[in-house]
Amino acid sequence: MTTDVTHTGIGTIRSGILGGGFMARVHGAASRNAGGRIVAVATSTASGGERAAAALTAERAEADAESLLDSSDIDLVHICTPNATHAALAMAALRAGKHVVCEKPLATSASDAGELAAAAAASDLVAAVPFVYRYHPMVREARARVRRGELGMLLSLDCSYLQDWMLLATDDDWRATSAGGPSRAFADIGSHLCDLIEFVCDERIRRLSARTRTVYDERAEHTVDNEDIAALLIEMESGALGTLLISQMAAGRKNSLVIELHGAQRALRFDQERPEELWLGARDASTTVTRDPATAAPDSARLQRVPAGHPMGYQDAFNGFVADVYSAIAGAEPEGLPTFADGLRAALITDAVLRSAADGGRWEEVQS
After folding, report:
1. pLDDT value at 4 more than 60
2. 20 and 137 share a domain?
3. Which long-range contacts (CB under 8 A, 24 or more apart) does 360-366 make?
4. Cα 51–chain centre separation
5. Which structural domain range is residue 213 located in?
6. Global confidence as pTM
7. Are 16 and 39 within 8 A, CB to CB?
8. Which residues, 6+ apart, have CB-to-CB distance to 76 below 8 Å?
9. Is residue 201 situated within a structural domain?
10. How does the average pLDDT of the chain come out, rounded?
11. Res 300: pLDDT
12. Based on the domain organization, do 208 and 110 belong to the same domain?
């Protein structure tokens, strides 16, 4: 099932992609799934752009980002470049009158993220950040159950996001340099975890205490500028307390994003590596609910593109996100679409984490 934007009155969405790595491929696949055209691709070099255009089967390569943003035949720009470039490119895209999907972090500082959120709000453009774990149907099911009051008063949270791709001293990536910004593990994956917590709980993190750790000061003979691990205590608006562990050095964990909520009546657990399931805990019995559009909450059912028993995963979630972006461009207001305002929220939480960690774990209020 795809979203046919030709029936929305705006015609086929014509996209330009900045960047040529893994995320550009994910964005490109989602764009095609939603019925869009990939018109152009640009990377940091002209030759890289040619290779990326061929890999993404784009209609052409542009010499650089400026040329792509100047193109009159592009409606929507996907920004899939290193973190430190996001703010400038996203602002340039908005000023060029383009709708924007910008990878997270939206910016490497809260002030830059605030400027982007304000610029987007002042325009009539769609500006979205792919917090795509919101688009797993069982996440929407979890949110619906919280909203219905099935858990009762929220008491505590036990949450984590664990990976192992930076486990060894020989592991390296541009994200460990200044191109990744002042935060790596938290800004890149902790932001997803906090967004999911606030989305499912339907309330915000009020304050936090954080400690971070950089295990290796150098990788590949360059200085590591940001953290490998972050551990947080959080307090929600309701007073519920939680623990969060974010690590890119957890052996054997590839993309383990887990949220577990403990309410006065029931508990709930979602594991991104088992996206077809939702664990529900009670004092007298526990059960696992599997994805089924026939019994799901409406907001979950709308994202279920295949029948029960036919597994859905990460690319399906990303496809659902881009389909909602296209719907928003057509004038709809899809439920739960993460915007630049949500990107700003993530930047404010990241800023509080860095302030707290720099001061030995002091409790910090998260700006609203």
Report:
1. no
2. no
3. 360/211, 361/209, 361/210, 361/211, 362/209, 363/207, 363/208, 363/209, 364/207, 364/208, 364/209, 364/210, 365/206, 365/207, 366/204, 366/205, 366/206, 366/207, 366/208
4. 26
5. 133-310+339-358
6. 0.95
7. yes
8. 13, 14, 15, 16, 36, 98, 99, 100, 101, 126, 325, 329
9. yes
10. 95
11. 98
12. no
